[in-house]
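re: ur question from yesterday

yeah so i grabbed the chain u mentioned. its 130 aa long if i counted rite. heres the sequnce exactly as i have it in my notes:
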Amino acid sequence: MSDLTHPRNTIKKIIGYEKVVNIPNAISVLDELIPISVEMAKRNLTGIWNFTNPGVLSHNELLEMYREYVDPNFTWKNFSVEEQDKVLAAPRCNMELDITKLKREFPELLPIKESAIKYVFEPNKKKSLA
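ran it thru and got these structure tokens back, copy pasting raw so excuse formatting
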């Protein structure tokens, strides 16, 4: 998530959309989670894990942070889920995942907003990427 130029980056994608839907969603900040995955392997932690940061962020919250930290002139428009469904090839899944198990093993894992600021927005401060 911290490489805002990568085409698979969520933020890179939504800053390029003409309109976005303002729905909260679980997000993974890989700069924080990849080191945790290495530690999980070292500890031989296996099984099913919801591998995301605690909490959710909406597209609008992400875009507001993008505007605050990266591009103060950035603007966007919203549209409804119904309008979005008309232009998508397949419906989207938006949810908050239960990460109690992950948080129990790694209590230092930051909530999504704090993690996004620390690992994504602060390092990319005032680098317009649109």
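noticed a couple things. The beta strands are 19-20, 24-25, 57-58, 77-78. also The mean pLDDT is 89.
anyway ttyl
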